[in-house]
Structure formats: structure tokens, C-alpha cells
Input
Amino acid sequence: MSTHRLSPQDFELLSAYADGETLQEENLAAKELISKHAEASAFLRNREALKRRLQTACGHVKAPDHLRLACLQAIESASTTVQTPRTARTPSLYITLAAAAVAIAVLLFMMQYARVTPDEPILVQESGYSMETYVHEHYQHDLPELRTASDVSEAQQQIKLLWDIEMTVPELKQASFTGFTYAEFVTGYHTPLLAYTTHDTGEVIVIFAFDMNHLDEYAALHRDEQAVRTCTDPDSVHIKDVAGQHVVSWKWDDTWYAGISQNHGEMLAARLPISN
Output
């Protein structure tokens, strides 16, 4: 890999890439930086580790907007102001960024602890990412821009062509297939996102599809243990309550699915083309 030092613009691009805020051309540029520069690869690994520390300390309790903005500004400042070459006496960019993030984590924890009441659910991960938690988290935001397909068969073909992923796109009962995309699920990990709209209520159903081979390689992403034990055949589903909403999991061939809608999980499960 190249030993050429990255510019502030490079770090800005990498930060946006880590947060899933880059367009297709920017994605290619970021991936090229990562492949050519050990410093870029280390930067992304460090960002991911810091995010996990923040999530462990703070869970998913929403911080005040002004505090979140201050934290983002502090991180950006730490990641762009240290430009001197690294020597035995000069702190590296990553040490500076880590120190800033630890301080932010403590501040966030103290601010959020004072705001939480015993009735509020706190979703704290001890290590890594909880798949069900992040399915729920994504569902709270607007859908990304979707690619369209005439039906699920065409969507399957496009997913294979675009991202070399062999999978079945479910055809849900009493629901129309809306579209699909390749979304960043957690930092550094992308997977197909499928969207549907029900005929009766017009609600949106979102399903994430995970290639089991790649999922096993990404050790930081954890599935619910009971779901893993339950979903051993194509007709088995598992329903997990996450902050009052249900995440429905099942496994077909080498693909693990996790879906969510506004309604009870059994209503989503009943739309699947399974025996029970």
C-alpha cells in the first residue's frame, strides 16, 4: 500500500463513506483510497471501533440535537486538524480521534442518563452490532432511493447482475414490491434492502437480506440467538420485540432475512409464502 499521507479532503470523503453519505462515484473513490492506503483502512477501522464504544456507552437513547451537533463537530475537528507527520513524539490522527471520542462518549452517557426514565427501553449492545436493533433503527428513517423492478423475479436478476448476490426476493401476499437497493446496514457492511407496500393498509414493509457466507465473515454483526435456533427450516420464523416494534427473521437457503413493518410481526409472517 502507498505511504503517501492522506489530505483533509481524503479524510472528509472517508468520513462520509463510513456514515453512508456518499454517492456512487464517491463510493468508488473511497474504496480506491482504502485499497491503496493503509492509513485510510486504519481510519475506517478506528471509526467503527469508536462507534461501537459510543453505542455501548449510550445505547439508542436520542441525544438533544444541540449535543449531537456538538459531538459531530468535535469529531470532525479532531479528524481534520492533526496534519503533522507522525513521529515518536507526535500523537497520530487516530490517537487524537480516539481521545475525542472517549470524552464524547462520557459526555453523552452523562447527558442521556439524566434524561432516561425507568419506563424507557434502552437498547445497549455489549459488543458489536445487533442485527434486529439496526433493522428497527433503519425503519425509523426515510427509505433511501430505490431501484425499481417490474416484479420480484426481475429484482432477483438485477441484484445478481449488480452485486453478484444469489438470493430469493420474497413475493409477499397482499403486498406490492416497491423497489430495492444496496444499503449500508452498519459501518462498512452493505446488504440488499427490499421494500413493499401492503394492498389493504398501504403500510411499508422493509426487509433486509443477508448473504450467510458474508454474514459469517462479519463477526461484529450478531443475530438474536433464539432466532438462530428457531430458523432452521424454510417454514420457521422468529419474531423479536425491539422497542415496541417486531422484527421478523427467517432463513431461505443461504440467505437470512429480517423484516419489519408497523403492525404485529405475525401479520408480516402471515404474508410470507410459507406453510405455517
Observations:
- Residues 79-92, 109-126 have pLDDT under 50 and may be disordered.
- The two ends are 53 Å apart (CA to CA).
